[in-house]
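Final report, closing paragraph on structural work. Over the funding period we assembled a curated collection of sequence-structure pairs, and we close with a single example.
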Amino acid sequence: MADRLPARLAALADRLTPRSVRARTTLAACLSVALVLAVASGTVVLLLRANLARTVEDGAREQAQAVARQAADGHLDSQLPLDHGTDFIQVVDAAGRVVAASQNLAGRPAVAPTGRPDGHRTFNLGALGDQHHQRVTTLTAGTPNGPVTIHVGASLRTVDAAEDLTTAALAVLSIVLLLTVGALTWRATGRALRPVEAIRAEVAAIGDRDLDRRVPEPRSDDEIARLAGTMNAMLGRLEAAGARQRRFIADASHELRSPLTVLRTQLEVALAHPDPEVRADLVAGALEDTGRLQALAADLLLLARLDAAGHDWPGEPVDLAELVRTTLAARGTEPHPVTVELPGALVVPGNPLWLGRLLTNLLDNAQRHARSGVTVRLTGEPAAGRGAGPAAVLDVVNDGPRIDGADREKIFERFARLDDARSRDDGGTGLGLPIARDIAAIHGGTLGVVDGPGPTTFRTVLPWADRRGA
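Its predicted structure, as stored:
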């Protein structure tokens, strides 16, 4: 049972805790103000009581000193007058006999002090018939007949009344202030969170076909306005991504439909044609189109894998120089000669298969557009600035037609081909360069066309892990 108590208390506290930001903010503001008010009110009451009690003590002490002077002069009357705020006066000699007293204690025995363990003394004042707080001042004085002890009791009625009145006033004011703070905080928080609720409602209403909608942006220049701006920017990116995806699907459908239609036509004609030689030519063409379809399907699958990889950076060490040599050796005789400029070794973290595909796509593109030759150049660059490490630079250069500035980004769009590369017989699908750029991006690098005079240069920059034997 005892072991379950903390868990039950925690569950109860969790149930009692407000759920909404508005309620939690209001509760926190009220608790903070209540704590400050409690400390301030307690301090005010204590200071007020201390000051009033000191005033009462000073009056009682003055009364006692006046009686002491009378006793020292031998002019002490048996009945002593009371000043304002003084409850009683009693003068007792060394034998405990009452020498003089105020009218309300006339004929009564001496007030009896009672010792307490803490060293303080109290007096039995029940004989006065009026029960209230008193402060008793005791003073010893010498007289012609010997020493006497003077007891002067001062009433604390005024102190108690002032303390009670101040406490009640502070309590009422504190309650009013707490209610005011709670109401203002609740209202202000509600107004501050109203744009957030509008943003939430709008986002909840946006479906996958309504990405052109935007959340309302407040006119204020605060965190909520920046949140709305960021949300609209994200919706803009989602809309652009959705448009790219739909365009990609449409382009892929178009690219697949054309060769499939041609393939079916070739097979139907081959099936119906009686001439074996014509039939063989048609089957060979169908086989060639099947190869193009297979290559296109492989490119689409690779794009899907690259999109799924996201920003997971492969970390296997890859020697780019050796990768270039191996790739060129595997390609055999090229339509155009390839000039190679390589260091001894240049190691980057990455996936060797993907990096090999990047290089292959760049070489295919260069061979397709080159007039007489292709150059592959691999170099290492030191850190370009603060926060940037050294990088490996892979240039694939061809002496073919220059690419216009307006087309230098277009060629990296999926299924995008320039006018002079539209022919399917050239072997291009419009996916080679986009795949190469995606591979470079996954490896933390970049791929683009160098802007400047000279031959067309596709430059790939990859983070450089190590260099040996350069």
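Residues 296 and 429 are 7 Å apart (CA to CA). The two ends are 74 Å apart (CA to CA). We thank the funder for supporting this effort.
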